Each structure stands twice: as structure tokens, then as C-alpha cells.
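lol so apparently i was supposed to do this last week
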Amino acid sequence: MNPRIIMSGIRPTGTGAAHLGHWEGALKNWLKLQDMGACYYSIVDWHALTTEYQDVKNIQSSVRQILLDLLAVGIDPEKSVVYLQSAVKEISELFLLLGMMTPLGWLERVPTFKEQQAQLGDRDINTFGFLGYPLLQTVDIIIMKADTVPVGEDQVYHLELAREIVRRFNNLYGDCFPEPQPFLTPIPKLPGLDGRKMSKSYGNAIYLNDSTAVLEEKIRPMVTDVRRKRRSDPGVPEDCPVFTLHQAYSNSEEIAMVSAECRTAGIGCLDCKKILIRNINAFLEPFRQRRSRYEKIAVADILEPGNRRAVEQARRTVSQVRELMNV
Ligand code: TRP
Ligand code: SF4
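anyway here it is w/ tryptophan bound
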């Protein structure tokens, strides 16, 4: 695989702030790809509106938190184009133009459309904007002519749709866009504190900016294998989310030890968790350090050069599209 143009986006929703699931699912690859091609990394605030249009007060502070997360993990705005989606108005023009040729059925068929509507039942997201979510995502990608998209596994279907739209466009109006491919990490899903998939909306996440104290508070009461009701009951580590986190953040001796001692009730869950707390702490420490260095800088100052470079590329693409579509 030889990526040339890389694009990805992250939504500034809820309290902002990225968690370990974002890191394992995608951000890790954002970092890795930074030296392998031209990278466009976007904070997609319009996408946040698709689900949060009724409650917009936190969007700006979420943008700030997400930007700090990106800087904290090592995304370098001098290497990568880091920008705010809404600063690139050309995205909205291309969204409108592609809306003309995107079959309604393709959007209605997207599994996340019905799933999220059911899951976020407290909000009315039976809207034009929410239906258009994957088209807007397609535009984010293709406006930069990206071929490689580092995302979590849950985004694979969106990328399939993006390729279908690209093929339809290229057929109707002439070759313009490459077909974007997802770039996945080997660990697809990280469990959260309750054992379900780690997700902001489940309230079970460990955030990249959690302090040592918060980390302890969260992991101590974490769900374990139900077989270990008493200290003397042996467990099955494969059925314990604490163990899955060990596999991601502990070294091979620790993993082997926990695995053996859990099965024989040689180690108690609290001691097992203490090792995990120590290791996640050590893992997060460099992020915390880098984050604190950026904390005083104004968001606008960091985003401005990236916004400018993103607009330049978007303008080039949109003027090509206008020509091809005769408008
Ligand atoms: N839908 C993506 C998510 O929820 C976010 C996103 C928006 C995105 N635009 C994108 C990801 C473009 C990759 C490329 O994670
Ligand atoms: Fe989970 Fe560790 Fe307890 Fe085993 S000892 S059940 S792996 S917390």
C-alpha cells in the first residue's frame, strides 16, 4: 500500500476530547501516516451538527479539546494540514453538487442511519442533514482527492459508499476522483469500563486527557469476569475487559502473569487493575506533557494556516467539478 493523499476527520461532539478507543481505532494511524504522504486532518464541526443541532453550545469548546488531543498525540500542524471543516465553504458547494447525483436509496441503506436513529432515540435525527451525513463525509475525503482514509472499523461502510459515489461521478462526468480506501488498525474494538465497546455516548470511556486520579477512579470499579465473585474464585481472563486492556497496554510478561494468576485466583482483581492503572498512566503521560505545552495557545492561531491550505486544495477540486458539471 502506497498512500499518497491521506484524509480523515473527527467529530467535536459532547464534551469533545478523544478517548483510548479513538486512539486505537484511528488516531494511531493518523500519526503513522503523517510521514507517508500529504495528510489532511479535519475537525468536522458540521458533522457534529447532524446529531447535535438542538444543543450547539458546546461545539466550540469541543473543537478546542479535540485540537489539543490531536496535538497531544503528536499530530504536527507543520507536517499535516489540520483544519476546521466549516472553514472550508467549498465543502458545502461540493456537497450540494454531489447531492444532485446521489441516489436517495444509497443513503437510506447505510446501516448507521437506522441504527443511530434507534440508539439516539431521545433526539429527533430524522433530518435531511443526518441522512446526508455519509455524503458529507464523502465530500470531506474526495475534495482533497484522498486515496487513504485512516478510520475505525465502524466507518468501513461509509467508505464503501464513498467509492460508489466516486464511481458514479467519474462515469457521469469524467475521471476526477480516486476511490478512497480505509486504513484500519489491528485492534478493532477496545472495551470500555462496562465491557461494552468504548464510546463517548455510553459514558464508559477513558479519555486521553484523564488525570492519574480520574484514571484510578474509573478503573478500580471496572467490570471484571463475573466468575470472580470472591477473591478465591478463579476467572477466565478472556471474558474480562480489564484483561483486554492489559493486552493493549501491558508488557508481555505482565500479560502472561495476569492470564495465569487470574485462572488460579492467584491474583486479586484489584491488584490486577493496579498494574493496568500504572501502565495506562505511563502510556498517557507523554500525551499529557505535550498537551500542557499547547494549552495556552489560541485555537484560531493553530488552525488558521491549515484552514488556508485546505481551502486552496478544495478550490482546485471544486473548480474542476464545476467545469465537468457545466455550472
Ligand atoms: N464519520 C467519521 C466518524 O464518525 C468522522 C468523519 C467525518 C470522517 N468526515 C470524515 C472520517 C472524513 C474520515 C474521513 O468517525
Ligand atoms: Fe479480570 Fe484481572 Fe480480575 Fe482476572 S484478575 S477477572 S483479568 S481483573
